[in-house]
Each structure stands twice: as C-alpha cells, then as structure tokens.
Amino acid sequence: MKLPSHIAIIMDGNGRWGLKKYNDRNKGHYYGLQNINKVVKDCIKSNIKYLTLYTFSTENWNRPKKEIEYLFFLFKLFYKKNFNSI
C-alpha cells in the first residue's frame, strides 16, 4: 500500500475529552500532545515527508487566559523536548 507524502491533523476535541474523562480540559490537551509525539515518530519511520498539525485556531483566543497559556506552555515544551530528534 502506498502511503501519502503529506498528512494533516486537526487537533480537535482534546479539551472535551479531558473534561469528560478527568474533569480537566488541560489533561486532555496534555494527552493529545503525547499522541502527537507518537504520530511524529511514526511519520518519520514511515518516510512521510510532510506533517501539518492544526493546533490552534482563531477561535481558541476566546478560551480562558489560563487555558491559552497552558496550551502555549505545552507547545513550547514539545518543541524544546523534541526539536533535535525530529
């Protein structure tokens, strides 16, 4: 089977999942990012050249300030931790 050269993922529903499962939207964002870590590694292993992650929409600016700050904290943490290995 031929794999695509480009995969795009819209990260939607992590906060709702975290709220439902843990009563905490931020836990959903955290676990969503852990899944992306695996996706990135699988794309590299499968020789998929391009991966687009739609992680933050203009509507996300309407979220509570603390949630926005946590999302950007997670983004920075992810890139800091993984930049040299991907």
The gist of it:
The protein has 86 residues and is mainly α. Helices cover 56% and strands 12% of the residues. The longest helix is centred in the middle third of the chain and has 21 residues, at 25-45.
Task: Name some characteristics of this structure.
mainly alpha, single chain, 86 residues, elongated
Structure write-up:
The chain is 56% helix and 12% strand. It has one domain. It has a two-stranded parallel sheet. The model has no long low-confidence stretch (mean pLDDT 94). The radius of gyration is 14 Å and the shape is elongated. It contains three helices and two strands; from the N terminus they run βααβα. The longest helix has 21 residues, at 25-45. With 86 residues, it is mainly alpha-helical. Helix 2 runs parallel beside helix 3 (65-82). The chain has helices at residues 14-22, 25-45, 65-82; strands at residues 6-10, 50-54.
The biggest sheet amounts to:
2 strands, parallel
Distance N to C terminus: 25 Å
Give me the number of helical elements: 3
What is the overall shape? elongated
Can you count the beta strands?
2
Main sheet strand line-up: 1-2
Helix amount, in percent?
55-70%
The low-pLDDT segments are none
Total domains, how many? Answer: 1
Compute the CA-based radius of gyration.
Answer: 14 Å
Secondary-structure element string:
EHHEH
Mean pLDDT, to the nearest integer, reads: 94
Structural class: mainly alpha
Name the beta content range.
5-15%
Organism: Candidatus Fonsibacter lacus
Keywords: Transferase
GO molecular function: ditrans,polycis-polyprenyl diphosphate synthase [(2E,6E)-farnesyl diphosphate specific] activity
Protein name: Isoprenyl transferase
